[in-house]
Amino acid sequence: MPAVKTGTGVTDKTIRLGVLSDLSGPFGPLGEAVVQGNQLYVDKLNAAGGVCGRKIELDVQDTGFNTDKAVQLYFKQEPSVLGLLQVVGSDITSRITPDMLQQQVMAAPTSWSSALLGNPYMVVVGATYDLDVINSLDYLVRQGKLHQGDVIGHISNDDPEYGGNALQGSQFVADKLGLTLKAIQVPSTKTDFAAEIGQLKAAGAKAVAISTYPKQTAVAVGTAAQAGLTVPFLVSNPGFDPSVLASPAGPAFQQLVLVSSSVAPFGAKLPAAEELAAAYKAKYPNGKPSMAVDYGYVVGIGYGAILKRACDEGDLTRAGVQKAFHELTGVDTGGLTAPLLFSSSNYPSSRQSFVLRPNPNTVGGLDIVDPLKESDLVRQRIG
């Protein structure tokens, strides 16, 4: 093994990466699944010899989705890790970003916000929220479900980096295709959606995009079914928790919901997904499979590829890893996503999305109804 420059978080035997996840707050099930996916890829990488003869170690911390707690954990963790394999929460990410830039800490946020683009230390894995919405609305147009002059709704939460960014996708499609957009923003604490669903029904909405937290999504879709608003509901991927399929809203989800995602679902009939599902069952026999596992695994693939390139170039310092990040142009994820393009932080690493349908009989709760595609409208959006 040739000599390699090392720095913070790297010893002769280990490479230490931090994880700031939500394991006990509103995204607890999602955070746990992403950590499991991270760990499964690290296990695979270590079994193959690691990186530069070093094993990867994860330092997992639970923020509980509390920003102040997360900031304290970050400052405790930062001096001993090379980078962060996961950060959950846009507010948390924005609070630690100034120090990350100063200390050259490369992080993979569990977020697909366009606001993260342009930061040379952010490893955004997949298409941004707005692009997912554009791709899923394009699917409805291709299916003959939407036509010029139709009304579309969008219920978004008040997080500008999630709901706000997803809404930009709906607005773009409406402007380009001559649709009328009825946009409704709701607080992240809202629990009753009768008024909002009533407004969309009265407006004659032919489809509704929804970018809220999972429990809110469940209430909104269940309310729509009861009110007779039986149109397609396009759910942004953080808004879907497969446990909803066992709830009273389950039948409504099967009937109305489509989920947009740049990451393949857990139960996908793809060799890479099937291999991951088998590894998951072996390591976490009592786990709750979801698409978040696949996302965590894909982040591992991307981050691992960056570390391997840094190793090949003989520089495992933070600066060396960041340089390697921006030299990668096509990371193969085995079809779990489109090939990831990291070479420019100004553009999403992927522009293609799956369209998925809930199915309680599929492990992980989602089937692919339309394979990875990039809409012509996405090309127009990005330019």
Automatic annotation (TrEMBL):
InterPro entries, per the entry: Leu-bd, Peripla_BP_I
Residue ranges of domain Leucine-binding protein in the record: 14-342
Keyword Mitochondrion: no
Top-level taxon of the source organism: Bacteria
UniProt KW keywords: Signal
Pfam families assigned to the protein according to its UniProt record, in alphabetical order: Peripla_BP_6
Alphabetized PANTHER family for the sequence: BLR6548 PROTEIN
Family, similarity comment: Belongs to the leucine-binding protein family.
Name the record gives this protein: ABC-type branched-subunit amino acid transport system substrate-binding protein
Taxon lineage: Bacteria, Bacillati, Actinomycetota, Actinomycetes, Pseudonocardiales
